[in-house]
Amino acid sequence: MEAGGGDAAVQESVCQQPEDLQVYMASGAKVLEMQFVEFVEMCRARRVEQTALELKRCLQRRRGLSRFRQQLIGPDGEILQNGARLDGPMDIQLALWSFEESSGEQIHQLCELAIYANSRGVEELLSKPLDPNLTSEFHGASALACACNRPNSRKVVDLLLEALADPNTLDGQDRTPMFIAVMMRDTGTIVKLLGAKADPDKTSFNTGCRPPRRTPLLLAASMGSAYVVRLLLEAKADKDKPETSGSTPISVAREKGHAKVVQLLQ
């Protein structure tokens, strides 16, 4: 009888094991609750391992918390490093780091690393954590603007957007990262910026043009970049927004003989 009762107690205990992955702040406020099987399926769909890093990315997508500012603490009080594997339901505590007080040299270094597409160096600085929106006095730009000026820096762009770099900040030349990416005809970066809610209608300074301020769509139309025009239109860019002279994307495309762009804008 005692043995049977013990077996029943064990079975009941097993049945009561938590099935959720739960994340709490130190205050006790619940930040995330999801079935562990959902986390497993999410990782499988993204073709990644079930790690603390992926949980941080999940928290970023669902709660808007930069993964670079997150510190996850496991049930036993241990800090979960990015590569730590999560093999079952558990309660995890979340601590949020404040940005480190940054020197001008560090900000300059971040921009330099972005320019040279040094993703490892960029990740190390962002993990301090360093505010990605600070502007280098030397470059007159944020690291995101610097990265968008280099066609081989898409991994760096990914890291900066993960750190919640503002995709709408103007650089020292009064240009947005989106405008720079359109100038570079970098469709991959344009897609990433649009995914980060870059404003497709924000005007930038376009050297040599009169009037000098243009939207990314008007710039793409003037360059004859039909695919970029299509991307911006799909992002609900205003196809009728004129320059102060009254020129619109379609009028500029007609003037320059970009028939395919004209067709897209009609």
From TrEMBL:
- Matches recorded under PROSITE patterns: ANK_REP_REGION (PS50297), ANK_REPEAT (PS50088)
Spans of repeat ANK: 212-244
Task: Tell me the SMART domains matching this sequence.
Answer: ANK (SM00248)
Which InterPro entries does this UniProt record tie to the protein? Ankyrin_rpt, Ankyrin_rpt-contain_sf
Gene Ontology MF, one: ubiquitin-protein transferase activity
Does the record carry Repeat as a key word? yes
Listed A to Z, the keywords are:
ANK repeat, Repeat
> Per its UniProt record, what Gene3D superfamilies does this chain match?
Ankyrin repeat-containing domain
What top-level branch of life does the organism fall under? Eukaryota
Pfam families reported for this sequence: Ank_2
What are the boundaries of the region Disordered? 238-259
What's a BP term from Gene Ontology annotated to this protein?
protein K6-linked ubiquitination
**Official protein name in the record:** Asb8 protein
